[in-house]
Design a protein that fits this description.
- It is a single chain.
- 37% of the residues lie in helices and 21% in strands.
- By secondary structure, the chain is an alpha+beta fold.
- The strands form three sheets. The chain has a seven-stranded antiparallel beta sheet with strand order 4-5-16-7-12-13-14. It has a six-stranded antiparallel beta sheet with strand order 6-15-8-9-10-11, with no helix packed on it.
- A hairpin with a 5-residue loop joins strand 4 and strand 5.
- Helix 3 runs antiparallel to helix 4.
- The protein starts with a helix and ends in a 15-residue tail after the last strand.
Amino acid sequence: MLQPHLLQKELGLSTCDQHGERAMFFCEEDQRALCDSCLSAPEHKDHQVLPLETAADKCKNTLLEMCRILHTKEEKLQIALGTLRRREAQVTERSNTLKQSAFSEFWKIQQFLRNEKYEYQKRLVKVSRSNLLQLEEYKNKLFQGKQKLQQMMIEVEENLDKMPLEMIQAVPGTLKKKEEFSLQRPLFPFITWPFCPITGMAEFLMSFHRDITLDPESAHPHLILSEDLKSVQYGSIRQDLPDNKERFDSVLGVLGAQKFTSGKHYWEVEVGDKTEWVLGICKDSVRRKGKLSFEEIMTIAAFRAGNAFFFCTSDKKFQLAWPLHKVGIFLDWEKQQLAFYDVTHRSLVHRQSNIDLEGPLRPYFSPCRPKERSTPGSLIICPKSPQERPATGPKY
Protein backbone atom coordinates (compact mmCIF):
# COMPACT_ATOMS: atom_id res chain seq x y z
CA MET A 1 0.00 0.00 0.00
CA LEU A 2 2.86 2.41 0.72
CA GLN A 3 4.84 1.54 -2.41
CA PRO A 4 2.94 3.78 -4.91
CA HIS A 5 3.14 6.73 -2.54
CA LEU A 6 6.87 6.24 -2.12
CA LEU A 7 7.29 5.97 -5.89
CA GLN A 8 5.44 9.23 -6.37
CA LYS A 9 7.62 10.95 -3.78
CA GLU A 10 10.76 9.72 -5.51
CA LEU A 11 9.51 11.05 -8.84
CA GLY A 12 8.66 14.41 -7.26
CA LEU A 13 4.94 13.87 -7.78
CA SER A 14 2.30 14.86 -5.26
CA THR A 15 -1.21 13.76 -4.53
CA CYS A 16 -4.21 16.07 -4.60
CA ASP A 17 -5.39 16.56 -1.05
CA GLN A 18 -8.95 17.11 -2.21
CA HIS A 19 -9.40 14.16 -4.59
CA GLY A 20 -6.54 11.84 -3.65
CA GLU A 21 -5.43 11.64 -7.29
CA ARG A 22 -2.01 12.23 -8.81
CA ALA A 23 -1.36 15.93 -9.50
CA MET A 24 -0.22 16.02 -13.11
CA PHE A 25 -0.89 19.71 -13.88
CA PHE A 26 0.11 23.12 -12.49
CA CYS A 27 -2.02 26.30 -12.31
CA GLU A 28 0.14 29.42 -12.83
CA GLU A 29 -2.57 31.75 -11.49
CA ASP A 30 -3.02 29.89 -8.20
CA GLN A 31 0.52 28.50 -8.12
CA ARG A 32 -0.67 25.00 -7.13
CA ALA A 33 -0.62 21.47 -8.49
CA LEU A 34 -3.88 20.06 -10.00
CA CYS A 35 -5.25 16.58 -10.66
CA ASP A 36 -7.69 15.61 -13.45
CA SER A 37 -10.68 16.28 -11.21
CA CYS A 38 -9.32 19.71 -10.24
CA LEU A 39 -8.70 20.51 -13.90
CA SER A 40 -12.37 20.06 -14.77
CA ALA A 41 -13.50 22.23 -11.88
CA PRO A 42 -15.07 25.58 -12.91
CA GLU A 43 -12.65 27.71 -10.79
CA HIS A 44 -9.71 26.70 -13.03
CA LYS A 45 -11.60 26.97 -16.30
CA ASP A 46 -9.99 30.26 -17.51
CA HIS A 47 -6.62 29.76 -15.76
CA GLN A 48 -3.32 29.10 -17.46
CA VAL A 49 -2.76 25.42 -16.70
CA LEU A 50 0.32 23.54 -17.90
CA PRO A 51 1.47 19.97 -17.55
CA LEU A 52 3.56 19.64 -14.44
CA GLU A 53 6.68 18.67 -16.40
CA THR A 54 6.22 21.64 -18.77
CA ALA A 55 5.76 24.04 -15.84
CA ALA A 56 8.84 22.53 -14.19
CA ASP A 57 10.89 22.96 -17.40
CA LYS A 58 9.68 26.54 -17.69
CA CYS A 59 10.62 27.25 -14.08
CA LYS A 60 13.96 25.53 -14.57
CA ASN A 61 14.74 27.72 -17.58
CA THR A 62 13.82 30.79 -15.56
CA LEU A 63 16.13 29.72 -12.74
CA LEU A 64 18.92 28.91 -15.17
CA GLU A 65 18.57 32.36 -16.75
CA MET A 66 18.62 33.92 -13.29
CA CYS A 67 21.75 31.93 -12.45
CA ARG A 68 23.39 33.18 -15.64
CA ILE A 69 22.51 36.78 -14.87
CA LEU A 70 23.68 36.47 -11.29
CA HIS A 71 26.88 34.80 -12.41
CA THR A 72 27.49 37.64 -14.88
CA LYS A 73 26.86 40.20 -12.16
CA GLU A 74 29.17 38.31 -9.82
CA GLU A 75 31.91 38.42 -12.44
CA LYS A 76 31.38 42.19 -12.88
CA LEU A 77 31.48 42.72 -9.12
CA GLN A 78 34.67 40.68 -8.92
CA ILE A 79 36.21 42.82 -11.66
CA ALA A 80 35.05 45.99 -9.83
CA LEU A 81 36.59 44.71 -6.58
CA GLY A 82 39.87 44.05 -8.39
CA THR A 83 39.79 47.54 -9.88
CA LEU A 84 39.02 49.01 -6.44
CA ARG A 85 41.95 47.16 -4.86
CA ARG A 86 44.25 48.46 -7.59
CA ARG A 87 42.88 51.97 -7.00
CA GLU A 88 43.55 51.62 -3.26
CA ALA A 89 47.11 50.57 -3.99
CA GLN A 90 47.47 53.50 -6.42
CA VAL A 91 46.10 55.96 -3.82
CA THR A 92 48.50 54.67 -1.18
CA GLU A 93 51.43 54.83 -3.60
CA ARG A 94 50.43 58.29 -4.84
CA SER A 95 49.97 59.53 -1.27
CA ASN A 96 53.43 58.33 -0.29
CA THR A 97 54.91 59.89 -3.43
CA LEU A 98 53.21 63.24 -2.77
CA LYS A 99 54.26 63.11 0.87
CA GLN A 100 57.89 62.54 -0.07
CA SER A 101 57.71 65.21 -2.79
CA ALA A 102 56.07 67.74 -0.46
CA PHE A 103 58.61 67.07 2.29
CA SER A 104 61.35 67.51 -0.28
CA GLU A 105 59.88 70.85 -1.38
CA PHE A 106 59.46 71.98 2.21
CA TRP A 107 63.05 71.01 2.89
CA LYS A 108 64.21 73.07 -0.08
CA ILE A 109 62.21 76.08 1.16
CA GLN A 110 63.59 75.63 4.67
CA GLN A 111 67.11 75.38 3.26
CA PHE A 112 66.46 78.50 1.17
CA LEU A 113 65.21 80.38 4.24
CA ARG A 114 68.19 79.19 6.27
CA ASN A 115 70.50 80.51 3.55
CA GLU A 116 68.58 83.81 3.49
CA LYS A 117 68.85 84.04 7.27
CA TYR A 118 72.59 83.33 7.11
CA GLU A 119 73.14 85.94 4.38
CA TYR A 120 71.12 88.52 6.30
CA GLN A 121 73.14 87.82 9.45
CA LYS A 122 76.36 88.33 7.48
CA ARG A 123 75.02 91.56 6.02
CA LEU A 124 73.84 92.72 9.44
CA VAL A 125 77.22 91.98 11.02
CA LYS A 126 78.99 93.87 8.23
CA VAL A 127 76.71 96.91 8.55
CA SER A 128 76.94 96.79 12.35
CA ARG A 129 80.73 96.81 12.19
CA SER A 130 80.65 99.71 9.74
CA ASN A 131 78.32 101.66 12.03
CA LEU A 132 80.45 100.93 15.08
CA LEU A 133 83.56 101.99 13.17
CA GLN A 134 81.93 105.31 12.27
CA LEU A 135 80.89 105.82 15.87
CA GLU A 136 84.39 104.96 17.08
CA GLU A 137 85.91 107.49 14.68
CA TYR A 138 83.41 110.12 15.80
CA LYS A 139 84.08 109.27 19.45
CA ASN A 140 87.82 109.80 18.85
CA LYS A 141 87.06 113.19 17.32
CA LEU A 142 84.96 114.08 20.35
CA PHE A 143 87.80 113.05 22.65
CA GLN A 144 90.20 115.19 20.62
CA GLY A 145 87.77 118.10 20.85
CA LYS A 146 87.48 117.56 24.57
CA GLN A 147 91.27 117.61 24.94
CA LYS A 148 91.47 120.86 22.97
CA LEU A 149 88.82 122.35 25.21
CA GLN A 150 90.71 121.31 28.29
CA GLN A 151 93.94 122.82 26.87
CA MET A 152 92.09 126.02 26.10
CA MET A 153 90.69 126.12 29.64
CA ILE A 154 94.22 125.69 31.03
CA GLU A 155 95.47 128.46 28.73
CA VAL A 156 92.66 130.78 29.82
CA GLU A 157 93.42 130.08 33.46
CA GLU A 158 97.13 130.72 32.85
CA ASN A 159 96.28 134.03 31.14
CA LEU A 160 94.28 135.04 34.18
CA ASP A 161 97.44 134.71 36.30
CA LYS A 162 99.60 136.84 33.97
CA MET A 163 100.51 140.45 34.43
CA PRO A 164 98.00 142.93 32.98
CA LEU A 165 100.02 143.73 29.83
CA GLU A 166 100.83 140.07 29.14
CA MET A 167 97.22 139.10 29.74
CA ILE A 168 95.97 141.78 27.31
CA GLN A 169 98.46 140.67 24.65
CA ALA A 170 97.46 136.96 25.07
CA VAL A 171 93.73 137.51 24.78
CA PRO A 172 93.53 137.94 20.95
CA GLY A 173 95.22 134.60 20.34
CA THR A 174 92.98 132.87 22.86
CA LEU A 175 89.83 134.39 21.32
CA LYS A 176 90.95 133.28 17.85
CA LYS A 177 91.32 129.70 19.05
CA LYS A 178 87.88 129.98 20.63
CA GLU A 179 86.35 131.13 17.30
CA GLU A 180 88.04 128.30 15.41
CA PHE A 181 86.78 125.78 17.92
CA SER A 182 83.24 127.18 17.90
CA LEU A 183 83.05 126.67 14.14
CA GLN A 184 83.51 122.92 14.53
CA ARG A 185 79.89 121.81 14.81
CA PRO A 186 79.40 118.11 15.68
CA LEU A 187 78.24 116.04 12.70
CA PHE A 188 76.87 112.75 13.91
CA PRO A 189 77.46 109.80 11.57
CA PHE A 190 74.52 108.53 9.54
CA ILE A 191 73.64 105.11 10.90
CA THR A 192 72.10 102.75 8.35
CA TRP A 193 70.53 99.33 8.73
CA PRO A 194 69.83 96.81 5.97
CA PHE A 195 66.25 95.82 5.32
CA CYS A 196 65.61 92.11 5.07
CA PRO A 197 62.97 90.89 2.59
CA ILE A 198 61.40 87.81 4.17
CA THR A 199 60.23 85.17 1.71
CA GLY A 200 56.60 84.16 2.29
CA MET A 201 56.05 86.91 4.86
CA ALA A 202 53.31 88.69 2.88
CA GLU A 203 51.36 85.49 2.28
CA PHE A 204 51.61 84.54 5.96
CA LEU A 205 50.46 87.94 7.20
CA MET A 206 47.63 88.17 4.68
CA SER A 207 46.10 85.01 6.16
CA PHE A 208 45.32 87.15 9.24
CA HIS A 209 44.12 90.22 7.32
CA ARG A 210 41.27 92.18 8.91
CA ASP A 211 38.97 94.63 7.19
CA ILE A 212 39.56 97.72 9.33
CA THR A 213 37.33 100.81 9.22
CA LEU A 214 37.61 104.11 11.07
CA ASP A 215 35.34 105.08 13.95
CA PRO A 216 33.92 108.58 13.19
CA GLU A 217 32.73 108.99 16.79
CA SER A 218 36.36 109.00 17.99
CA ALA A 219 37.87 111.31 15.32
CA HIS A 220 39.35 114.66 16.36
CA PRO A 221 37.37 117.59 14.84
CA HIS A 222 40.34 118.52 12.62
CA LEU A 223 40.41 115.07 11.01
CA ILE A 224 38.46 114.45 7.81
CA LEU A 225 37.33 110.87 7.17
CA SER A 226 36.36 109.46 3.78
CA GLU A 227 32.81 108.24 3.17
CA ASP A 228 33.91 104.60 3.20
CA LEU A 229 35.77 105.22 6.50
CA LYS A 230 39.00 103.94 4.95
CA SER A 231 41.16 107.09 4.93
CA VAL A 232 41.86 110.09 7.17
CA GLN A 233 43.59 113.42 6.58
CA TYR A 234 44.13 116.64 8.49
CA GLY A 235 41.81 119.55 7.84
CA SER A 236 42.83 123.11 8.70
CA ILE A 237 39.26 124.08 9.61
CA ARG A 238 37.90 122.60 12.81
CA GLN A 239 34.63 120.80 12.11
CA ASP A 240 31.54 121.43 14.20
CA LEU A 241 31.12 117.96 15.71
CA PRO A 242 29.43 116.79 18.92
CA ASP A 243 31.85 116.68 21.83
CA ASN A 244 30.91 113.15 22.82
CA LYS A 245 32.93 111.19 25.37
CA GLU A 246 34.45 108.93 22.67
CA ARG A 247 35.98 111.80 20.67
CA PHE A 248 39.61 112.95 20.98
CA ASP A 249 39.67 116.66 21.74
CA SER A 250 43.42 117.31 21.94
CA VAL A 251 45.25 114.45 20.23
CA LEU A 252 44.88 114.37 16.43
CA GLY A 253 43.84 110.74 16.45
CA VAL A 254 41.08 108.41 15.36
CA LEU A 255 40.44 104.80 16.36
CA GLY A 256 39.51 101.81 14.29
CA ALA A 257 35.97 100.53 14.73
CA GLN A 258 37.17 96.97 15.39
CA LYS A 259 38.06 95.68 18.88
CA PHE A 260 40.47 92.81 19.51
CA THR A 261 40.50 90.61 22.61
CA SER A 262 42.33 87.54 21.26
CA GLY A 263 43.85 85.97 18.15
CA LYS A 264 46.12 87.31 15.39
CA HIS A 265 45.24 90.40 13.35
CA TYR A 266 46.93 92.19 10.45
CA TRP A 267 46.15 95.31 8.44
CA GLU A 268 48.05 97.63 6.10
CA VAL A 269 48.07 101.42 5.86
CA GLU A 270 49.38 103.44 2.93
CA VAL A 271 51.21 106.52 4.20
CA GLY A 272 52.56 107.59 0.80
CA ASP A 273 55.04 110.47 0.92
CA LYS A 274 53.83 111.85 4.25
CA THR A 275 56.73 112.93 6.43
CA GLU A 276 54.88 112.58 9.75
CA TRP A 277 52.34 110.01 10.92
CA VAL A 278 51.50 107.73 13.83
CA LEU A 279 50.09 104.18 13.57
CA GLY A 280 49.52 101.36 16.02
CA ILE A 281 47.08 100.17 18.66
CA CYS A 282 45.75 101.42 21.97
CA LYS A 283 43.35 100.28 24.64
CA ASP A 284 39.68 100.92 24.09
CA SER A 285 39.72 102.71 27.44
CA VAL A 286 42.41 105.21 26.36
CA ARG A 287 41.79 108.79 27.47
CA ARG A 288 40.00 110.81 24.82
CA LYS A 289 40.16 114.19 26.57
CA GLY A 290 43.41 116.07 27.04
CA LYS A 291 46.91 115.12 25.98
CA LEU A 292 48.20 111.56 25.95
CA SER A 293 51.63 110.26 26.80
CA PHE A 294 53.44 108.24 24.17
CA GLU A 295 53.32 105.19 26.42
CA GLU A 296 49.51 105.15 26.42
CA ILE A 297 49.49 104.28 22.72
CA MET A 298 51.50 101.32 21.41
CA THR A 299 52.49 102.91 18.13
CA ILE A 300 55.22 103.67 15.66
CA ALA A 301 55.63 107.36 14.87
CA ALA A 302 57.60 108.56 11.84
CA PHE A 303 59.08 111.93 10.99
CA ARG A 304 61.72 113.15 8.55
CA ALA A 305 64.72 115.31 9.38
CA GLY A 306 66.54 116.22 6.18
CA ASN A 307 67.01 113.03 4.18
CA ALA A 308 66.81 110.75 7.21
CA PHE A 309 63.66 109.10 8.50
CA PHE A 310 63.34 108.56 12.22
CA PHE A 311 60.91 106.16 13.87
CA CYS A 312 59.84 106.26 17.48
CA THR A 313 58.06 103.56 19.44
CA SER A 314 56.93 103.47 23.03
CA ASP A 315 60.18 101.72 23.99
CA LYS A 316 62.87 103.17 21.70
CA LYS A 317 63.87 105.46 18.85
CA PHE A 318 65.68 104.34 15.72
CA GLN A 319 66.56 105.47 12.22
CA LEU A 320 66.05 103.90 8.80
CA ALA A 321 67.95 104.68 5.63
CA TRP A 322 64.78 104.56 3.56
CA PRO A 323 61.24 105.91 4.05
CA LEU A 324 58.14 103.78 4.46
CA HIS A 325 55.28 104.16 1.99
CA LYS A 326 53.06 101.31 3.16
CA VAL A 327 53.06 100.00 6.74
CA GLY A 328 51.81 96.61 7.92
CA ILE A 329 50.67 96.19 11.54
CA PHE A 330 50.49 92.69 13.03
CA LEU A 331 49.02 92.03 16.47
CA ASP A 332 49.60 88.61 18.06
CA TRP A 333 47.53 88.51 21.22
CA GLU A 334 48.72 85.10 22.46
CA LYS A 335 52.43 86.00 22.11
CA GLN A 336 51.86 89.58 23.35
CA GLN A 337 53.62 91.03 20.32
CA LEU A 338 53.04 94.00 18.06
CA ALA A 339 55.07 94.17 14.85
CA PHE A 340 55.43 96.80 12.13
CA TYR A 341 56.43 95.84 8.57
CA ASP A 342 57.63 97.63 5.47
CA VAL A 343 55.13 96.23 2.98
CA THR A 344 56.98 97.57 -0.06
CA HIS A 345 60.26 95.82 0.83
CA ARG A 346 58.56 92.92 2.66
CA SER A 347 60.71 93.37 5.72
CA LEU A 348 60.30 93.77 9.46
CA VAL A 349 60.78 97.30 10.79
CA HIS A 350 60.21 96.81 14.51
CA ARG A 351 58.69 94.33 16.94
CA GLN A 352 57.48 95.04 20.46
CA SER A 353 57.18 92.07 22.82
CA ASN A 354 55.56 91.54 26.21
CA ILE A 355 53.15 94.40 25.64
CA ASP A 356 50.21 95.06 27.95
CA LEU A 357 47.18 93.38 26.40
CA GLU A 358 44.59 93.95 29.09
CA GLY A 359 41.17 94.91 27.84
CA PRO A 360 40.01 95.31 24.22
CA LEU A 361 42.55 96.84 21.82
CA ARG A 362 41.76 99.03 18.81
CA PRO A 363 43.78 100.29 15.82
CA TYR A 364 45.05 103.86 16.13
CA PHE A 365 45.69 106.40 13.32
CA SER A 366 47.05 109.94 13.29
CA PRO A 367 48.06 111.92 10.18
CA CYS A 368 49.69 114.53 12.51
CA ARG A 369 49.41 118.29 12.21
CA PRO A 370 51.22 119.57 9.08
CA LYS A 371 54.31 121.68 9.70
CA GLU A 372 56.14 124.14 7.48
CA ARG A 373 58.27 121.53 5.70
CA SER A 374 56.06 118.49 6.14
CA THR A 375 54.29 116.75 3.28
CA PRO A 376 50.48 116.60 3.64
CA GLY A 377 48.44 113.61 2.64
CA SER A 378 46.08 110.90 3.83
CA LEU A 379 46.49 107.68 5.74
CA ILE A 380 44.67 105.04 3.69
CA ILE A 381 43.67 101.62 5.01
CA CYS A 382 44.51 99.11 2.28
CA PRO A 383 42.16 96.33 1.17
CA LYS A 384 43.32 92.75 1.06
CA SER A 385 45.53 92.28 -1.99
CA PRO A 386 43.76 89.92 -4.46
CA GLN A 387 47.06 88.46 -5.71
CA GLU A 388 47.97 87.41 -2.17
CA ARG A 389 44.78 85.53 -1.42
CA PRO A 390 45.27 81.77 -1.13
CA ALA A 391 44.46 79.93 -4.35
CA THR A 392 41.29 77.83 -4.38
CA GLY A 393 41.96 74.30 -5.59
CA PRO A 394 39.54 71.81 -7.14
CA LYS A 395 36.94 70.16 -4.93
CA TYR A 396 36.44 66.40 -5.09
